[in-house]
Amino acid sequence: MCGIVGYIAKPENSGEASREYFALDVVLEGLRRLEYRGYDSAGVAVYADGAIDWRKKAGKVAKLEEEIAQRPLADSVLGIGHTRWATHGGPSDINSHPHVVAGGKLAVVHNGIIENFAELKTELTELGYNFVSETDTEVAATALAHAFEQERDLTRAMRKVCQRFEGAFTLLGIHADQPDRIVAARRDSPLVIGLGEGENFLGSDVSGFIDYTKQAVEMGNDQVVTITADDIAITDYEGNPAEGKSFHIEWDAAAAKKDGFGSFMEKEIHDQPAAVRDTLFGRFDEQGRLTLDEVHIEESLLKSVDKIIVIACGTAAYAGHVARYAIEHWCRIPTEVELAHEFRYRDPIVTPRTLVVALSQSGETMDTLMAVRHAREQGAKVIAICNTQGSSIPREADAALYTHAGPEIAVASTKAFLAQITATYLLGLYLAQLRGNMFTDEVQMVISELRQMPEKIEAVIDNKAQVAELAKSMQDATSVLFLGRHVGFPVALEGALKLKEIAYLHAEGFAAGELKHGPIALVEEGQPVFVIVPSPRGRDSLHSKVVSNIQEVRARGAITLVIAEEGDTAVEDYANHVIRIPQAPTLMQPLLATVPLQIFACVMAETKGYDVDQPRNLAKSVTVE
Ligand code: F6R
């Protein structure tokens, strides 16, 4: 939530001869790329001609750009920017960031919440400071300005105020009296540093500067960084030097562009074959054995694990639910899936033999981060499965397994979901291999099935026209239900979530077996019901049970939209519409059956004229609890 960018370069580099861009270009590009983190207002501040100048506006970054076009800012080599998801104070010009105080000398942008802002505001008011906005950020900026008066140094002032601030925050400040630097601080809120030559960058994540450098540095919690054009210096809040962790950014700047698609979501749906392929890539040795070099947890510990808890939120939690079926089946380890925000408040039973798997696309979801800390405090080992380098959750976990889905920009998660399922499957197979639950050839058989999935996902995407037509024909529906059993159940939940979040349509996912225990009462004439049908070649009577469920809702007037394998003729008599997916073993099916549901939601939202990538009230990367 909230995107933050900072940029500083050497003044001598800024002449036309050596540089084609100025701070404003870099900061605005960064804001466009980070807009998915929050989009109710945006602002920039630059230092030029001995003073700070700024523009800020309620609305999207485009509005800010219009404002700047009307009232241009001077060329500059120092700038900060912000795109906001409102917490304290509604989205308005005045509440937007930057907050500029100290008679226009100090500009601050902020992500997070300063929880003790009321107490600080009272103290500062007593000292004679005035406030014009409703935000905690203005209080933080004023506290920083006050500390600067005493310290005459922005870095020392930042360290001092951060010791007083409670809550989670990232802060960036620039001061007209020290225009050679940006000073930033973080606690439980994202910030990464980008390294250039004669220029340096700050961003909420690497997308903020991905166009300019591939070298980045992660900083730890409760640290302050001072960046100048050719140096970075990290310390803790007491001023003790600290080391950042350098990494090479694997994301490609082009991957964060729409590439001719109508929306990022549409593009990311099409990215899914590559997301699965890239997540599988490089994880095997020459004999085809799974290696997972990143999992630096002692093998003896992994062998002694007696319980797995997957913690995650939203779509990532649904990926966890899918994973549970596979992990329990392959490893015979009891596996729980828990919403991260529930986990730590219910006193969970966690021991040193518990393996916690934290699933997060952003690696910054505060609820998941807090759950990771709680699990580690209880002695559990934590493996993070994340998509974003330089983020907090992998940094704080004992080991990290990255999904290689590339940047996910649309707020509604698509390719991350498929990549998370793929990565959890790799982890499950790795544990099964290590603990001897599966023979090597059994593991390899599953891996070969996984390797066929990108092509099969491609085939599902190729069928998008049929799904798009269905979505358009149902745009007047007021509610859509989704049914599935086994791994089809979390797929149903995910299908419903997609529709809620981007098409603002009431949607519910149910375990198909639960139907008769209540939800069937919702079914009336014309009610659209998606049914995810397991493979008829699968185990037990799963398939026939789901076919019976289709009959049950159809008999009550539902319009049934059935997702079934090629060649599954048993569904035809009861389906109003059959959406075909390639044949695949039951555990692989979520990687296919989810895709039509994503397309359905995307087209439905577009047809209704909604902003598919930036749905109302939401922001990607939920960095507050
Ligand atoms: C839904 C969606 C969210 C996220 C959830 C967790 O489309 O994107 O439900 O899945 O906020 O986010 P991460 O995976 O970043 O922890």
Automatic annotation (TrEMBL):
Single GO molecular function? glutamine-fructose-6-phosphate transaminase (isomerizing) activity
The residue ranges of the Glutamine amidotransferase type-2 domain are: 2-230
Q: Might you report a single GO cellular component term? A: cytosol
Provide the reaction this enzyme catalyses: D-fructose 6-phosphate + L-glutamine = D-glucosamine 6-phosphate + L-glutamate
> Any idea where the SIS domain is?
297-437, 470-615
Which Gene3D superfamilies does the annotation name?
A: Glucose-6-phosphate isomerase like protein, domain 1, Glutamine Phosphoribosylpyrophosphate, subunit 1, domain 1
**A Pfam family matched by this chain, by name?**
SIS
Chief localisation class: cytoplasm
Q: Which PROSITE patterns match?
A: GATASE_TYPE_2, SIS
Catalytic residues of the enzyme: C2 (nucleophile), K620 (for fru-6p isomerization activity)
Q: So which domain of life are we looking at?
A: Bacteria
As for subcellular location, the record says: Cytoplasm
Q: Which UniProt keywords apply?
A: Aminotransferase, Cytoplasm, Glutamine amidotransferase, Repeat, Transferase
Provide the E.C. number(s) assigned to this enzyme: 2.6.1.16
Q: What GO terms describe the biological role, i.e. biological process, of this protein?
A: carbohydrate metabolic process; fructose 6-phosphate metabolic process; protein N-linked glycosylation; UDP-N-acetylglucosamine metabolic process
Class of the enzyme per the UniProt entry, highest EC level = transferase
What the protein does comes down to: Catalyzes the first step in hexosamine metabolism, converting fructose-6P into glucosamine-6P using glutamine as a nitrogen source.
| Subunit structure, as described in the record | Homodimer.
Q: What is this protein called?
A: Glutamine--fructose-6-phosphate aminotransferase [isomerizing]
Q: What high-level taxonomic lineage is stated for the organism?
A: Bacteria, Bacillati, Actinomycetota, Actinomycetes, Mycobacteriales
